[in-house]
């Protein structure tokens, strides 16, 4: 992995990739680099206008790129179903579950779930499940779910998945990112249980501390302008660029030999640097916790992974 960069991404002509949250930040960089290597990239964005603007920007940077916008609101399961059912492709080689929210004031999704758990985990759980038949039919497909080093702050609470009893914005965020890793672990386990029947890998990655707008959305939503300005200043001083933050995710998505259930992040203190195996809380590999979260996620979303049932 030492020194790995976008020049090491293999040719992707004929491949189809779906990237959530692709209109800016990491998602835009990921989409650009996949398209540069020849992939057809679906930019799954909550805002149709921002999705179209992202396509125009990518076409300016990569003339002739095969990119298209599609509306996807991960905080609305009806939108997730509409998006999944509307994809016209017979193959999906790469699903990058990248979109997310961070440290938001307490709120709920359209379906009544706590926002961070609902968007970061349940929305992607439902999306992956709905796209699973196409993924299983595509040799070499990968599901890459973007977590965070902040997952180390908290495990999921099976008794209070929606943080009803007590809400802390950073605790809820950490729980949602632990949920991402537990989802990857259980998806990997269920795929492996089929004795190689499907050539699909589930992997996870994180960007370290990347300079994106993710850290300012919460303060902006609450009108905490000083906190927003401080967050921007901190990012400019301490964070690495979105291009650098996207590298671990691109590595997990495209590098040969990436093992299922792996977790890739920046090499230096989980913060910045070239892609490398990342530290991971032991609870994110706990089979019992993962199975319970999976069962709850199927119940809450109504999306069942029939092909992977024991």
Outline the fold blueprint.
Layout: E1 16-20, H1 25-36, E2 40-45, H2 48-61, E3 67-71, H3 77-86, E4 94-97, H4 115-136, E5 141-146, H5 169-192, E6 200-205, H6 214-221, H7 225-238, H8 242-254, E7 263-268, E8 272-277, H9 287-301
Parallel strand pairs: 1-2, 1-4, 2-3, 4-5, 5-6, 6-7
Antiparallel strand pairs: 7-8
Give a quick precis of the structure.
The protein has nine helices and eight strands.
Question: What attributes does this structure have?
Answer:
single chain, 310 residues, alpha/beta, Rossmann fold, 8-stranded mixed β-sheet, 8 strands, SDR_fam, oxidoreductase, SDR family NAD(P)-dependent oxidoreductase, NAD(P)-bd_dom_sf
Any overview of this molecule?
Belongs to the short-chain dehydrogenases/reductases (SDR) family. It comes from Streptomyces olivaceus. InterPro entries: NAD(P)-bd_dom_sf, SDR_fam. Keywords: Oxidoreductase. This protein has one domain (11-299): 3-Layer(aba) Sandwich (Rossmann fold), CATH 3.40.50.720. It is 43% helix and 14% strand. The protein is built from nine helices and eight strands. The longest helix is centred in the middle third of the chain and has 24 residues, at 169-192. It is globular and about 50 Å long. The two termini are 35 Å apart. 50% of the residues are buried. The model is unreliable at 216-220, 225-229 and 231-235 (pLDDT under 50).
